Amino acid sequence: MHIFLTGATGFLGTVLLRDLLIRGHTVTALARAKHGISALDRIRGRLFDYDSNFLFDQAIGNTLFIAQQGLSGEYFGLDKEDYFRYAGLADMIIHNAACTELEADWSIYEEVNIRGTKEAIEFAAHTSGKSLAYTSSAYVAGTRSGRVYEDELIAEGSFRNGYEQSKALSENEVRKAASSGKIRAMIFRPSIIIGSSSNGWMCEEHHFFDFIFRLSLIHKIILKQLSSLKIKVDYQFRIPGDPQTTKNFVPVDYVANSISQLIEKSQAWGKAFHLTHPYPLKLKMLEGYVQKALGWLEIKLCSKEEIKNLSPLEQRFFRSTKIYEKYFWEEPFFDQSSLRLVLGSCLPVPEPISQELVSQIVEFIKVKHIRRKNLKLNRDK
User: Fold this and answer.
1) What is the tens place of the pLDDT at every residue in 26-37?
2) Which of 58, 209, 264, 330 has a 20 to 30 A CA-CA distance from 46?
3) What's the pTM value of the predicted model, to 2 decimals?
4) Is the CB of residue 5 less than 8 Å from the CB of residue 65?
C-alpha cells in the first residue's frame, strides 16, 4: 500500500515507519523542519538512531517520500495542491501525530489532538481507500477500574489529565466520521509505550525516560551528599505508589508490529484494538527492577499518607514527577478480545517486562544523558 504517515519523527512513529518500509509498503512521511534541521534529515536521524543498519539511502525516493510541513494551520501545513496530490496517491493515512504532554494547556490539545484528528479525517476522505488508522491511547479509559473493552468509548467521565480527555474526544470524531460513511477507520489504543525490546531505544521526550532520568539525577545528588559526610548511612528514598497495582508497559516494537499487521487485515476496519501487555507488571516488581538497574536498593514505594512526611529531596523528586503520580495507584484491565480475534495465530505477544529490559532501558538513558552533556560541553567551548 501507499501510506501517508503523520508523527513520523515521534517515538512510535520512527519504529512504525521502519516496520512499514520493511514490510514492503510505500510511505509518505509528514514532518516539520526543526532547529534548522530539515524534515528529511530529522527522519534520517531518527531511523539511524533506532536502527543504524537501516538502508535509508535505498528507501528515500523509492519507497519513502517526505512531506515537509510549513507554518500554515491548514492542510497539515502543506500547500493545498500538495495536500490533495499526497491524498490522491495514498491508499490510507495512519494518523500518529499528537501532543503527548500530560498537562499541557487545553488550547494545545484542541489544536494538535482534536483539530489534527479532524484534519486527518478530511485527508482520509480524499485517499483512494477513504481509510484512516488512528493512534489513540488505552488511557481514554480515564479513571475507570475493572475490565475495559475495545469497543467502548469513554468520551464522558473522569480523566486524569487533558491528554486523556483530548484523545477520547478525538476517538469520538473518528467514530462519528466512520459511522456516517465518510471514511472507514480502525483505532489503536496502546498503553504506556517503553523502549524497544531489542535494544532499549526510546525518545528522550518520553515520560518513562523523563521519570528514570530524574530519578537517576536525584540518586547522584544523594551519593554526593553521603560522600561528603564520609560515613555510611542507611536511608530509604520513598516514591508514592501502590506496590500491588499494575502498570501496563508495552515495548515500542510490539506496538509498531501490531499496527503494521492490523492495517493489512480487511477485518480490522471498523474496530478498535488495545495494544497493551496481556500480563501487566506489578509496581512492586518494577520497584525491584529499577533498584537493581540503578544500583539503588533503597528506593521504596510508599502510601499516600506518607507524602506529607517526605524528606526535602523526596519532595523535590515528587514535585518534579507529580504528573506521573496519578498513574501509580490504580489502572483498569484492558481486554484484547478484538485484537486476538483479528490477528489470531499472527498475534504478537510481548515477552514479560523483565529485569533485562528495564536494565537495558536505564543504560540507554544513561548513555543518552552522557552524550547530551558532552554535546553541551562542546557547544560551550
Assistant:
1) 999 999 999 899
2) 264
3) 0.91
4) no
